[in-house]
Amino acid sequence: MTAFSCQDISLYELACHCQSPPTPLQLSPATLKSAMASLIDVLVDQELAATLWVKLPQAPVWQEDLDRYRNRLGETANLCVFTPVATPPMMPDDEATTTVTIILDPDSHLKREYFLLAITEALSVLILAHQPRSVRLPGEEFSEPQLFTTTPTNLASQRRHPLLGFITCNPIVIREVLVGLQQAIACSPAPPNPPAPSSHWDAFFAQQRPQEPDPSLISLLFTRQTQRQEEVWRQLVSNRKQAETVEHLQRQHENAQSEIRLKDELLHMVGQELRTPLTNMKTALTLLDSPNLKVAQRQRYMDLLRTACDRQTALINSVLDLLQLEHDASQETQPLHLSEIVPGIVSTYQPLAQERGIGLFYTVPDTLPTISGLSTWIRQIVIHLLHNSLKYTPAGGQVWVQASQQGDTLVLEVRDTGIGIPPDEHRHIFEPFYRLRQEQPHSEVEGAGLGLTIVHHLVQRSNGAISVKSQPGEGTTFRVHLPITAPAVVS
Fold this sequence. Notes:
Blueprint: H1 11-16, E1 25-27, H2 29-45, E2 51-55, H3 60-73, E3 78-83, E4 98-103, E5 113-119, E6 124-130, H4 152-155, E7 163-168, H5 171-186, H6 198-207, H7 215-288, H8 295-328, E8 334-336, H9 342-355, E9 359-363, E10 371-373, H10 375-391, E11 398-406, E12 409-416, H11 451-461, E13 465-470, E14 476-483
Parallel strand pairs: 2-3, 3-4, 9-11
Antiparallel strand pairs: 1-7, 2-5, 5-6, 6-7, 8-10, 11-12, 12-14, 13-14
């Protein structure tokens, strides 16, 4: 055998620095395996007896194409398999197959490279991929990427570990790589299995004479590679669709679980809220049975009973409104004009506002464009916001309901001069049964604490947004932004 000094040699670097070097490309493991499978396809289809120089990842998915070639052309094939492990992989028990296993030196650059070199009389092809040192894990000399030990289904979708490589039929490049392979054998820490004398290897390498390839075989190789890549692409698309379906189902499951959890919490809170009016009613009824009640006491207990009944009625109605939201969600939305909804609601509340000494005004131009939703949704939004403003506005105050266009949205604004909301409570006001800690002007109309919760749900169902601006003693402004569905009418 020709004498070589055992220095660290990279087949990739040898190829890149020879005369007429190939152009390296960044390859995925899926592309590398597809290229190797395409080459085996051509060798098997054309029944080309070849000498194969091979170094592949250890996973079975990478060995299947090589096994396919052994099973078809093993009697005429020469296989030289390079491996970085002390225990070589299991080979088929076929005495007719000439397979030589070479254990690599622990410091060999070939540990970072994968290749399939096929040499025949009509076609010589080198497929080589190099794992750059930049992907080496900290504190490790070399780590075979996890994606090389994966399943065929997942192989096409993994991209995390870059490879640099090429496919070439250039005899000059192949001869340079053969020199590197001969040196790797000379530097092997153990004799090849089965062992061979040096003269045998000298003669064997002398017979490796890559020639210019047959153009028809190159065309066939390109065709097979295109077919393989198309299969990889279809698998990627299929995997992506499956992943999107799984993700969609997962989101649906999470949303369903969230809705169930919220309904459970709401049911629990409803039960807690029902206790107070029921307890008050029971207490009032017990006290009313006393034979020594004075007229003023009896009136006070009757008022307590009436207030508890009103509160329970408001709570039940609010819960029914929330349940109605689930029913309305299945209905088709329609284009709506705020000018056909708001004035009627405001006029309904005018007597109550006058009774409490509150000025109630509205401004809703007829020329505003339409929004998309259900009339019942918009009515509930206006009713609850208006009711909330009247409840927290003292006598002598004012409440305004206004609508205007801002860009591609309509802004429904309900503004009052009421007691206001402390900034630290803004984030809680849409929570079920939340009430302001400060005293409200009209305690006798205390609601169920679900009005703003219903408003928030309805605004979200309408693809809108709601905001609040308020300070204690300065009043409160609620702004509901609703998307426009039709252009404004020009008068």
